[in-house]
Amino acid sequence: MKKCPKCGYERLPKVNYSAPSTECPDCGVIYEKNETYLAQKKSAQKKQSERTSLKPKLPKNLNKKPYILALTVIFILGFLFVTAQYVIFPYLKKQELDKLDKLDKQNCNKAYVALKKVEALLESGINYRDYGNAVSSVRIELNLLKGDSKRAEELEKIYVYYQISKELWSAKVKDDRTAIFNIIESGEISNGVPIINILESGEISNELWRLKTLTGLRDRNPELYVELHGERYAELYYEPAQQVLWHEASGLLKDYEQK
């Protein structure tokens, strides 16, 4: 019995069919052609299956939900951003600040050593030229410091007293009585009090007071006052003024050392 591959009809052995034996009496398909067609179709399906098997297979979840990959990427990028913003960048900034602070301390120490040298020279005795060179060396070291550093501000304040003292000494060397008068009258110490006020608040001789209040001349006409009494003024005020400046600088140095 021959079974049709298309419709499944089976030829009966004792029945005379009008259709030839190579043809299905029910659907009319040619057996051989249909078998060839089915074989070709099966071969094509096999090749297609082989090509498909060579392609990389993605996980089923990704095939069904591709947005999971996008969410994963967004999460990773967000994590990296937060880590950089709140961990890495602050750490690098702190490292940079620590580096600058260390450098500032080193430069401050050099300026401090230069100031201590000035103090030591004054205690052991020094001439004007050496004193001026020592104060200039302090200025060079201070120029290397950051202006907004607390340590730099304190050292700068100490330097100012030595610089005023240097200017006062220079005026004395040049016998510039007007400069001596102006420095003592206008120069201020740390609390903003003029040097002259400090000098005249202590146990100074009555002659100093007389020079100050002499008919109010010093306040009314400083130039005439210096012309008439400048020599005596310099004799009485110069040394005490220098002592006040050096004393203030030495006190601030001690305060700096204790911090």
Tally of distinct domains? 2
| Beta content | under 5%
The helix/strand series, from N terminus to C terminus, equals: HHHHHHHHHH
Model regions low in confidence, pLDDT < 50 over at least 5 residues: none
- What is the overall number of helices? 10
Helix percent reads over 70%
Gyration radius from CA atoms, angstroms: 52 Å
The pLDDT mean sits at: 76
- Overall morphology: rod-shaped
Largest sheet: none
- Regarding quaternary structure, what we see is single chain
CA(first)-CA(last) distance:
116 Å
Structural class: mainly alpha
Describe this structure in words.
This protein starts with 30 loop residues before the first helix and ends with a helix. The radius of gyration is 52 Å and the shape is rod-shaped. Helix content is 74%, strand content 0%. The protein contains ten helices and no strands. The protein has 259 residues and is mainly alpha-helical. Helix 3 crosses helix 10. It folds into two domains: 1-55, no CATH class; 70-258, no CATH class.
